[in-house]
């Protein structure tokens, strides 16, 4: 794993409080294609079989699971939990070779729709199965649902906490919402807490595309259980992680859970550091970054430490500093993703006028005086915001809410080369 850090500015004024932004670039190792065997994997699928899934949606989901089962190695572990108003273990998790592919195909095909939607019971039972059979390489739980949870635990924050604790023990959770009726708040929070992905599949067949994308990622995974510890030094008063990650305050600073990385995957994380007034000129360390992860090929744990320092200079010299464009662009990009939370809220409340206003405000922020050049991802972001604003007049609030949620969930995690997650439309992600 490669870790690089870039400051927006490396000069701060003597005896003046300041704020600096650090952009971290992380790149996972590339899988060794010459290896005789890849690391074994564990995949537990939690499938909504409530009444609303009947017909094309359930049939498409089953086709995707059949394809998934065919692509797994005999050494891999697979299990299927279905849920309506209660959870049922349709296929107890075990090695594919021991379960038998004929049995997998038969039991997947036999799933039928019925009942209400107790998403929490299915998810919790899926976590139990994952924990039971997980190996040193961890496990992935994939939740597919088209419904709004109307039974069981329905508090998104509570379920996010459950997913986060599972991720800390090596079990990643990804979610796929099908159609416009699913509970996007719960599914996005579970995926974020579980250090996984969230995708919105607008149609039945698109769900199969999303499942295939998630499986592609699972089978090319090279790093798991990655975390970043940010330890402030001296009198640093504040640390803020702009990415939407599971974070927690620890004794020495802030711990951010990064989850798993796929072969060659790159991400960017942005952290702001509140720098106190410093009384001495010269180089001063303001934080220590420590990346910890497990490389799957060897199951060895690695630790990479990187200090963050600034140069304290007279005020007149600091006044002439020019922020690094790449860092300010990434910061603005993530601030835009965070603004989408308010847009989601307006859309979930059916407030289309409020959503339109907030979309306009997010667009205007990109044009604000002193903003970085609108090229690359910022140009793409501007086009996406403009397209979404135009859709307000023609699409339902439910659809738009899920479009915004899925897009924000993927982008705010810092993915730069990962295709998993996001909106699935017409066979594309």
Report what the structure shows:
It contains twelve helices and 17 strands. With 429 residues, the chain is of the alpha/beta class. The protein folds into three domains: 2-31 and 223-315, Immunoglobulin-like; 42-219, von Willebrand factor, type A domain (Rossmann fold, 3-Layer(aba) Sandwich); 325-419, no CATH class. The strands form three sheets. The chain has a seven-stranded mixed β-sheet, sandwiched between helices. A hairpin with a 3-residue loop joins β5 (77-83) and β6 (87-95). α5 (156-168) packs parallel to α6 and α9 (325-348) runs antiparallel to α10. Residues 424-429 have low confidence and may be disordered.
Topology at a glance:
Blueprint lengths: L1 E6 L3 E3 L4 E10 L14 E7 L7 H16 L5 E7 L3 E9 H4 L1 H9 L9 H15 L5 E7 L10 H13 L2 E8 L5 H10 L1 E7 L2 H16 L1 E12 L5 E4 L4 E5 L2 E10 L3 E10 L6 E14 L4 E14 L1 H4 L6 H24 L3 H15 L10 H15 L5 H15 L10 E3 L5
Parallel strand pairs: 2-16, 4-5, 4-7, 7-8, 8-9, 9-17
Antiparallel strand pairs: 1-3, 3-14, 5-6, 10-13, 10-15, 11-14, 12-13, 15-16
Helix pairs in contact: 1-3, 1-7, 5-6, 6-12, 9-10, 9-12, 10-11
């Amino acid at each position: 794993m490669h870790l690089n850090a870039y400051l927006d500015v490396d000069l701060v004024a003597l005896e003046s409080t300041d704020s600096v932004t650090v952009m971290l670039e992380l790149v996972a190792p590339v899988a060794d294609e010459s290896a005789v065997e890849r690391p074994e994997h564990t995949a537990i699928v939690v499938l909504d079989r409530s009444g609303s899934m009947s017909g094309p949606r359930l049939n498409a989901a089953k086709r995707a699971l059949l394809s998934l089962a065919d692509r797994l190695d005999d050494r891999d572990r697979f299990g299927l939990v279905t849920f309506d108003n209660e959870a049922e273990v349709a296929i107890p998790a075990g090695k594919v070779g021991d379960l038998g592919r004929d049995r997998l195909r038969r039991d997947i095909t036999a799933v039928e729709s019925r009942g209400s939607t107790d998403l929490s019971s299915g998810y919790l039972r899926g976590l139990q199965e994952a924990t039971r059979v997980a190996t040193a390489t961890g496990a992935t739980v994939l939740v597919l649902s088209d419904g709004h949870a109307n039974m069981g635990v329905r508090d998104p924050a509570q379920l996010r906490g459950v997913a986060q604790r599972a991720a800390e023990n090596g079990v990643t959770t990804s979610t796929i919402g099908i159609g416009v009726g699913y509970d996007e708040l719960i599914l996005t929070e579970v995926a974020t807490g579980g250090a996984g992905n969230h995708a919105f599949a607008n149609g039945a067949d698109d769900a199969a595309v999303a499942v295939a994308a998630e499986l592609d990622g699972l089978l090319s995974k090279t790093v798991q259980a990655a975390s970043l510890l940010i330890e402030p030094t001296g009198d640093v008063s504040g640390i803020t992680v702009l990415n939407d990650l599971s974070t927690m305050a620890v004794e020495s600073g802030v711990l951010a859970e990064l989850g798993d990385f796929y072969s060659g995957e790159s991400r960017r994380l942005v952290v702001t550091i509140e720098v106190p007034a410093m009384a001495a000129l010269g180089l001063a360390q303001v934080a220590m970054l420590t990346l910890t992860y497990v490389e799957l090929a060897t199951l060895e744990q690695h630790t990479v430490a990187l200090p963050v320092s600034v140069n304290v200079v007279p005020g007149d010299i600091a006044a002439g500093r020019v922020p690094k464009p790449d860092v300010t662009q990434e910061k603005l990009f993530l601030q835009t993703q965070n603004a989408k939370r308010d847009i989601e809220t307006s859309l979930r409340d059916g407030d289309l006028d409020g959503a339109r206003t907030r979309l306009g405000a997010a667009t205007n922020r990109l044009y604000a005086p002193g903003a970085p050049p609108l090229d690359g991802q910022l140009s793409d972001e501007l086009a996406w915001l403009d397209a979404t604003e135009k859709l307000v007049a023609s699409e339902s609030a439910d659809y738009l809410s899920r479009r915004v949620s899925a897009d924000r969930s993927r982008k705010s995690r810092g993915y730069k080369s990962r295709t998993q997650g996001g909106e699935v439309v017409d066979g594309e992600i």
